[in-house]
Amino acid sequence: MEKLEKPLEEWRDELSDTQFHVCRLGGTERAFTGEYYATKTPGIYHCACCATALFDSDAKYDSGSGWPSYFQPVSEQAIASKEDFSHGMHRIEVKCAKCDAHLGHVFPDGPAPTGLRYCINSASLKLVPKA
Questions:
Q1: Domain layout of the chain by residue ranges
Q2: Which of the chain's termini has less CB crowding within 10 Å, N or C?
Q3: Per its UniProt entry, what is the enzyme's top EC class, as one word (predicted)?
Q4: pLDDT averaged per 10 residues in sequence order, the chain, 131 residues
Q5: Is 49 annotated as a binding residue?
């Protein structure tokens, strides 16, 4: 996937304050406050920064965590991951493969068929409902 790179100042101009904090600075939303944590609207969740398709609503489930949770991305090429040792924890950070937006983290406690829980910030997503 071809990378999309922009200076932070350009991202700041294009994104809301919350989106910028989450996507470009690696922040997080408080649990149960994001726009999509409880939505059941069928559709595809795209990156809020670059519009890359990331997650299908068919893979969304209620993890009880307070963030939108998915058991798999639309494709392995859509996301990138890296080890994250921040806040005294060892986690796997999930990023958009195209623009490196911080999405959230993936944990090995999800449902079948993958056993994974992609715990994603609503601010990093834009839902495109299915027609």
A1: 8-129
A2: C
A3: oxidoreductase
A4: 92 97 96 96 98 98 96 97 85 96 97 97 97 80
A5: no
